[in-house]
Amino acid sequence: LTIDGGTESSILVDDNGSEEDYSYEELCQANPRYLQPGGEQLAINELINDGSIVCAEALWDHVTMDDQELGFKAGDVIHVLDASNKDWWWGKIDDNEAWFPACFVRLRVNQEEVVVENAESTQDEEQDSSASKHCHKNAENIDQMRTNVIKEIMSTERIYIKHLKDICEGYIRQCRKHTGMFTEAQLNTIFGNIEDIYRFQRKFLKDLEKQYNKEEPHLSEIGSCFLHHQEGFAIYSEYCNNHPSACAELTKLMKHSKYRHFFEACRLLQQMIDIAIDGFLLTPVQKICKYPLQLAELLKYTTSEHSDYNNIKAAYEAMKNVACLINEHKRRLESIDKIANWQVSIVGWEGQDVLARSSELIHSGELTKISKQGKTQQRTFFLFDHQLVFCKKDLLRRDMLYYKGRIDLDEVETVDMEDGKDKDFNVSAKNAFKLINKVREEVHLLCAKKPEDKQRWLQACIDERKRVQEDKEMGMEISETQKKQAMLNAKKLRHGKIKGVSYNGCPVPPPHQVLHPIHQRHITVPTSIPQQQVFALAEPKRKPAPFWHSFTKLTPFKK
Fold first, then answer.
1. Which of 56, 152, 157, 523 could form a disulfide with 5, with the two C-beta atoms 3.0–4.6 Å apart?
2. What structural domains and CATH numbers belong to the chain?
């Protein structure tokens, strides 16, 4: 048994070695265990136990400072060693083995290519002939490989549409009926523009179905669909920008039992699979990052002579740019947490928060600031996008910084200075450069210790302007809610009120605490059950109060 196409399709191989395609549903009819919650992990683990190599590709960067977690970048290939837990898998990259979040990766459709890559990279010259034979055999099956990827794209797209429909009809529609529980602002925060995404994806799937060749899937020409709708995929940027706020709002609501029971009742009423609401809301973020990986794999098995080759290549580049924006936004969210923690450590901070205008630290270091009166001040400068903040170090505690001011970089021009006497400041300066604000008629003269330090600062100033322009072109923007939340978390952390912040503000237990999860039984609710009974079904039964607890409430004496 080998899985190809994630968990949607499989190939059963008989004793004679002949192959026959089966859908995932047909496979599950033969083995119902795969339909149960955690069934796909069960299938993957059985492959691993049989000695098969199972590899996954990273959807986005996973930055970690925990040695128990595996760090990687988007597109990295991870050798999956254990998938028994639905949230955290055990994997390997090079010689590093650790836990990694399962929702950050996508299983490869054609696992055979891993074997070929390993053969090409590890075999020596004496084994080159056998490796080339393997590659030649792989080339003969390229149509089947392309068929596998095409089928995965179609299958996952249909499943994704079902998830979006369930969210819109199962959750949003029910929430709008209960105006006493949800305000319109809360619903906008939790669900964002997912209804727009649902409408867009239905049109996209309709076009995909037209281009899909059922008789000979490898001849399907789907590249044009991605190119035709590439501008429409921009709506994912708004959703992904809002997603951390959605997680924070859900976390707040889930502290109350009535909301937990309500969302569970919605799931049961819609007969949705056994996934929590936050898992459903993560699917659009995963999906937009999965497209470039799918198209990259499809491009591998699309020859240059294929009529769809140029469109697939262009579609891959287009979807990669969209995914890069999402990945960059996630990285920037991690950056604002660090910046917020930095600001709360500064003594005597004045004015607006640094996050009000900035979201990334570009460069930092020591510079000498010279005033018009010739007074020199040693300061530590922090170059962010849009502003330059400078602080003074404590004479005794060198790790303590005092806020001294900031310079608006949107209004200044950076000018390199030659060594010697400056006519404006009437002082001799070495390794100096100026920041000139023509609007306010301000000039700042800064000196580095070494020529190479000065060059780094000049280059950093160029990079800052380039970064600001790129952010504007990409539409990179951090919401005010996310900035305020980052500052709030930093202040709480500073006072020891919280122990840590996890991905996107959602509390996720560390891997060693989720090794043996308890999978809930999947309940299918018949459509004939009235709605109020379904909501009552989701409400857990209350345990009767113990006798002595009730008795002591009645007696005036307590011993």
1. 152
2. 2-109 (2.30.30.40), 142-341 (1.20.900.10), 360-475 (2.30.29.30)
